[in-house]
Amino acid sequence: MDETRTGTTPTEGLAERRWRGTASRTAAWAVITALALVAAGIPSAAVAASTSWLQYGNGPTHSGANAAETVLTPSTIGGLQKQYTATLPGIADSPPVYLAAASTPGGIKDLLFLTTKDGWTVAVDAATGSTLWKHQYGPGSCRINNGAQPCYTTSSPAVDPNGTSVYSYGLDGRVHKYAVGTGAETTGGGWPELATAKPYDEKSSPALTTASAGGHTYLYAANGGYPGDRGDYQGHVTTIDLATGTQKVFNTLCSDKTVHFTPANDCPQVQSAVWARPSVNYDPATNLIYFATGNSVFDGTHNWGDTVLALKPDGSGVGGGPVDSYTPSNQAALNSSDQDLGSSSPEIVAAPSGSAVKNLGVQGGKDAKLRLLDLSDLSSQGGPGHLGGELQLIAVPQGGQVLTQPAAWVDPASATPWVLVANNSGISGLKVVTGAGGRPQLSPVWKTAVAGTSPIVANGIGYYLTNGGVRAFEPTTGRLLWSDTSGTVGLHWQSPIVVNGHLYYADGSARLRAFGLPGAAHPVARVGGADRYAVSAALSAATFSPGVGTVYVSSGALFPDALSGGPAAGRAGGPLLLVQPKAIPSTIATELRRLHPAKIVVLGGAGSVSDGVKTSLGAFVSGGAAAVSRIGGSDRYAVSAGVSRLTTPVANPVLYVASGENYPDAVSGGAIAAGSAKGPLLLVHPTSIPSVIRAELGRVHPARIVVFGGTGSVSASVATALKAYTTGAVTRLGGADRYAASAQISGSVVTPAARVYVATGTVFADALSADPAAGTAKGPTLLVTPHGIPSAVAQALTRLRPSSIVIVGGTGSVDNAVQAALQAYIR
């Protein structure tokens, strides 16, 4: 009915971004390359671009797989060393989450966030372990077990996909919203949001989860009971629309009542629970959320004990029940023997090649079984309320209850999907294969008897915590690659995360531990590819998680339409992907399948991106062709105005202007417009303001205007004319050439910078793709020559003092000598 703890070893954990689909979906991994820095004597490791771990499992599917990791490899993992041990204000019985390049009063920093059992929310500088801010909503007078102990939580926080807010559960029964950099709490507009009206009986056991679907971003908070299966709790999921603050409640008992139960307005059925580590998993392929319940009654109408449930992303069901459900045929026996099905959450896994079923999930349980389910028809009988119907039912290879969350991973070498399961009896690896008649099935491959918490996979290495230490292993064989015995006594639901070459975890003694490689933990990275389209796809894969709200698409043959679109994409939290005028390159198609965005915006008219391409893009969004729109116009200036008109409110604080006749100033400025000071980028003639741009300037009427480029790009007379459209200043960021202008524009970035992007100044394509990623990191895009670093750019790098640098493009664009030279500028 709720979590239990047996034996001496932990049982629970974490997971990250899942890679769904067949072999083609792993192609994006191959185009993210890290080149050796031989000239500088630096290891060949490289950090992926702007990688964050925003929630439990590193994404709404909670796979536990970080495909963007490049620093820690099988050849470098042996050098992993402890970097610090930080003291927390309480025990965090859950994994941390990680936000790259957060704006703080002390500059741009990578931050870790944790929720402690006694209600602290803590922000920690990931580089040093120092506490940036903390808040507590503690137990107060809330007591459980007849007053024997204070109320507590095992929840994990979640960072908003836009990177501005972090959400955390408090012991007042509410979800609280804080500014990531300062900890300032949002109050009003529904915040703090109610998660339970009975915090003395109901506990937020799982992590908070966010997912974006249909143009909305939702936050999910699940509740169960306390260990011992006592008290008045029904198990429910609260879904909060982050744009409006409105919420829906789905109760797993008395599901026809969509309210937070109180003792005065209650359900007669009790003691179901939603307590698995991820709370809910969102599958963009089915556009549904999934979760499982603990023991209680089942009637297939309004009471759903020991059941996997599917809801719409907004948290609603159908007819007083779920959209779909799976309930084991022996549910009554599970209930009577306290063998919760919902001790884990349905892990979404990729379908193997040739599978007749494309949407798969793996459900564990206290009965030591694994169930393979069809997520598009959970019971294989159509709709909710049925018993049985799993695709496969097998014993856990190492035996024992599954109270942890499995990891789902696709081996890029073979395109084979894998499931990793750890528990009190050990850990095992299972392939997902295709059997007779195209029926998918789990095939156990290896197991070991070293028990532990929920595993994760990063760059082909598995990780998990045990009471004997943290371990790194080969996920296809279980072979041990590295271990450390630090701080793993007294574990429960804690599990590790691996991001940007570092391993982090909280332990059972109120400590946060960090591991990294000595010396070159943050070398210069390269995101390259066979052509501009592969680079565009690779950078998106290294930066953005599946389920983004909007993807912008532009021609990779010409630059004008994309100049304004790149900043708009970054402001929307998604990438700018390049296509051919009449075709979608295979690497871009692979990345679009992975992203599965809510909508796609095509930049430019049919001459830039054909109607045929626009129609084909409908296959990559859940809403089909209707979710693909076009911003066109008679020329590049009309497109620029159209982008601003659809994305920028009246009286925006700032607006940027650049020449539409050439790209360098606009691509350097695009990163600033996308990130550190958000605003639209409008294109002008060098000596005049087109009428369509004048109209848009009059509509927005910004507080100030910034011109990118010198007077040769945008004349003094144009800058003077711009003063009529703002009540504030018109300033210019320019230089003697494109490189000096790029350096001057980067002066808008707060120092020290967490991440700087570098691209060639001689070709437009790579820099265009870089701007949304740079905006996400709140860093600049600096231009270099293919074979050198111009002096103005070198001076800018010295001022910026970045903790990491990412080159966008292959060695033909920026050669290895430049990559080696850039290492000197990393702090």
From TrEMBL:
Signal peptide: none annotated. The keyword Plastid does not apply. Keywords: Membrane, Transmembrane, Transmembrane helix. Residues 53-299 form the Pyrrolo-quinoline quinone repeat domain. It comes from the Bacteria. The chain crosses the membrane at residues 27-54. Gene3D superfamilies: 2.40.10.480, Quinoprotein alcohol dehydrogenase-like superfamily. The lineage of its organism: Bacteria, Bacillati, Actinomycetota, Actinomycetes, Micrococcales. Pfam families: CW_binding_2, PQQ. It comes from Leifsonia poae. Residues 326-346 have a biased composition (Polar residues). Residues 315-348 are annotated as: Disordered. This is Pyrrolo-quinoline quinone repeat domain-containing protein.
